[in-house]
Amino acid sequence: MAAIVSDSKASVNNIEGNISSIKESFPLLDSLPAVNESLGSLDSDIPKYGGELKRYNYYRWIVSIVLCSIILLIIACNVLGLLLGTIGIALGDDPYSANGCSQSGANFLMAGVGFSFLFSWLLILLVFITFIVGGLAYTEICKPWANGDIYKLIDTIGSQDDRLNLSNVLKLNQSFSFTEVYSGCKRGDSLWTILQLDRTFDLDEKLNVNKYTDDLVKNLRRLNVDLNSITLLNSGGRNVLQEFVASGIKNIDYQAFSEQISNAMVNVNLSLVIQYLSTLSLTQTDTEVKSNLTAQIERLRNLETTLQEQRKDVVNLTESLDILKGIGSTLEASVNATLKSVDKAAKMLETIPKPLLKNATECFIAKELGYFEGYLKWVRKAITEDILSCNVVSVTLDNSQVIVCDFLINPWNAFWFCLAWCTLFLIPSIIFAVKTAKHFRPIKGMFSQDSSEMTTFKLPRAQINGP
């Protein structure tokens, strides 16, 4: 029996070792350290570029504010010029005389024209540069990334460069494209399905329950229990029970016994006697008599304490007598029934067939195998679905596409697009400002009230001569 138990424990330990050894032959283990190292280096490099990105963002805001301020300055000059010029014309009475308000409006309009000529080359240059960078980034990065052509480009480059070859990086015999892996991960498939690892690693054979439990089942089936050697009640115990029944416990006069133990052992109230002797000892003048009284008082107190403890024992004894009285009448029948049950059980143990023990062993084996099968199914599900899940890869790539395109390149293109329209509208703004400023200035070279020609010209007057 001990050898069978020892062999069964050894089989269980071997099962644990065999299951642990699966990972040594599992694919991708050789390539995972390199992938982890690459991800680790990427994770360590990201904080290095954080400061550069913050600096770039700061400079971007400065340039944007400066350019917007230039456009706003030109617009402000045009608006103020139109406002002041219109007010000056509305308040002026003579279009030939100089008007400070309309003259200021014309000056503001021409200032806007000057600023337009001064900064237009810078705006055109910036629009051209940002257009080249943003347009190429959108057409060469964002569009291929959105429709998946960028992954095909990676596959094309990977076919020529082993460093970008997915099969070479993962050290797999089959050829896989990055596009297939990304599409599978986006569908929610695991790498086990996408990379078809079942072709290189027979998981069913590795997780075959019979492979691990054959030795354990053999050891358990060797288990053989000999029930004939089991003794439920030996002759000594049987004799004790029979002697106890024959002791005459049912013939005891419990009533007389109860009355006897309920009689008081002392009919005197010792507390009153002790109190009386204590009072008497206080009135004695003879020291010898007083000493004797004190000694007797101490003995009486000890006796009273003993009697109190005996009263508690009498109470317990009375309860025990009541219990014994209750079982005394049925004790013989109970003991005889117990002996018959023991004899019957002993005969059943002698007559139990071995197939019954074998069935119990098989039930135990089936139950344990069920535990192993459930565990191995969980291991299979964990390997094929949970551990090798790559949904995070597609999510990361999609999020990267959103960050790069939607948050960087698209705002960049929106900026140069708006700046280009603002620059384009500078042309009609210049023409409009020049044409309008001419009307806000006084008319020169025409006749006016202060013209010398008007002052020197004299109207003819009729002269009347007297008779």
UniProtKB/TrEMBL annotation:
GO MF annotation list: cholesterol binding
Coiled-coil regions, chain positions: 290-320
InterPro entries registered for this protein in UniProt: Prominin
Pfam families assigned: Prominin
Membrane topology type: Multi-pass membrane protein
Cellular component aspect of the GO annotation: apical plasma membrane; cell surface; cilium; microvillus membrane; prominosome
UniProt KW keywords: Coiled coil, Glycoprotein, Membrane, Transmembrane, Transmembrane helix
Main location: membrane
Transmembrane segments: 58-87, 108-138, 414-434
Subcellular location: Cell projection, Microvillus membrane
Family as reported in the entry's similarity comment: Belongs to the prominin family.
PANTHER family, sorted: PROMININ PROM PROTEIN, PROMININ-2
Name by which UniProt lists this protein: Prominin-1-A
Source species of the chain: Callorhinchus milii
Gene from which the chain derives: LOC103187799
